[in-house]
TrEMBL record:
<feature type="domain" description="Thiamine-binding protein">
    <location>
        <begin position="3"/>
        <end position="92"/>
    </location>
</feature>
<comment type="similarity">
    <text>Belongs to the UPF0045 family.</text>
</comment>
<dbReference type="InterPro" id="IPR002767">
    <property type="entry name" value="Thiamine_BP"/>
</dbReference>
<protein>
    <submittedName>
        <fullName>MTH1187 family thiamine-binding protein</fullName>
    </submittedName>
</protein>
<dbReference type="InterPro" id="IPR029756">
    <property type="entry name" value="MTH1187/YkoF-like"/>
</dbReference>
<dbReference type="Pfam" id="PF01910">
    <property type="entry name" value="Thiamine_BP"/>
</dbReference>
<dbReference type="InterPro" id="IPR051614">
    <property type="entry name" value="UPF0045_domain"/>
</dbReference>
C-alpha cells in the first residue's frame, strides 16, 4: 500500500516547517520507501507498518503542538511493490509518447 499524508500543527503560526520536519524524520527513519514533496509525504509498505509510521509522525508533531491536522490518502493494492517509482514511471512513459 501507498499512503500519502500531510501532518501539520494547528495554532502555532504560519511557519510550520520545523514541526513538519519532525514528522518527515520519523518517516525517513522508518526505513520504508518514502518520498516528500511540497504538499505530502508518501510512504509504501504493509498496512500495519505504514499506519504505525503515520501514527508516530503525528505523535512527533503533537508532542510540540497541542493540536494536529492530518490529511491521508491510501492506495491499497495487494501484491504491488515499488509503487512509488513505478506509478510515476508509467505516467512519464505516456508523456514521452506524446
Amino acid at each position: 500500500m501507498i499512503v500519502a499524508f500531510s501532518v501539520s500543527p494547528v495554532g502555532v503560526g504560519e511557519d510550520v516547517g520545523e514541526y513538519v520536519a519532525e514528522a518527515v524524520r520519523v518517516v525517513r527513519e522508518s526505513g520504508l520507501p518514502n518520498r516528500t514533496d511540497a504538499m505530502f509525504t508518501s510512504v509504501e509498505g504493509e498496512w500495519d507498518e505504514v499506519m504505525d509510521v503515520v501514527k508516530r509522525a503525528v505523535a512527533a508533531v503533537e508532542a510540540r503542538a497541542g493540536r494536529v491536522s492530518l490529511v491521508l490518502k491510501a492506495d491499497i493494492r495487494a501484491g504491488v511493490t515499488d509503487g512509488l517509482t513505478s506509478k510515476v514511471e508509467t505516467v512519464e512513459r505516456y508523456l514521452a509518447e506524446g
